[in-house]
Amino acid sequence: MIRELVERQPYDGWAWVDCYVLDRHGDATVKRQLFVRPDGMRPVQVRPVPYAERHRAKVGR
């Protein structure tokens, strides 16, 4: 989540937030605005993969 959009007036217990979709490497790929219940949100644990290790060429294939 990037930030809560406080200028919008959601229902009680709900919030509008800016966030990013993460790929399997933990990199942000697409920005989204979501209508969520903050008490149901949880952090995502994605192990970052160094860029140099992502696209190693497979020798002999």
Secondary structure layout plus pairing:
Elements: E1 3-4, E2 15-22, E3 28-36, H1 51-54
Structure commentary:
By secondary structure, the chain is mainly beta. It has one helix spanning 51-54; strands at residues 3-4, 15-22, 28-36. The chain has a 3-stranded antiparallel sheet, with no helix packed on it. The longest helix has 4 residues, at 51-54. The radius of gyration is 17 Å and the shape is elongated.
Secondary-structure element series = EEEH
Rg (CA only): 17 Å
Q: Indicate the percent of residues in helices.
A: under 10%
**Total of DSSP H or I helical runs spanning 4+ residues:** 1
Helix/strand/pairing category: mainly beta
Gap between N and C termini: 40 Å
- Taking pLDDT < 50 over at least 5 consecutive residues as the criterion, the unreliable ranges are none
Overall geometric form: elongated
Mean pLDDT: 82
Largest sheet: 3 strands, antiparallel
Strand order of the largest sheet: 1-2-3
> What is the strand tally?
3
- Classify the beta-strand content into a percent band: 25-35%
Fill in the keyword field for this structure.
61 residues; single chain; 3-stranded antiparallel beta sheet; mainly beta
Task: Put the structure in a nutshell.
By secondary structure, the protein is mainly beta. Helices cover 7% and strands 31% of the residues. Strand 2 and strand 3 form a beta hairpin.
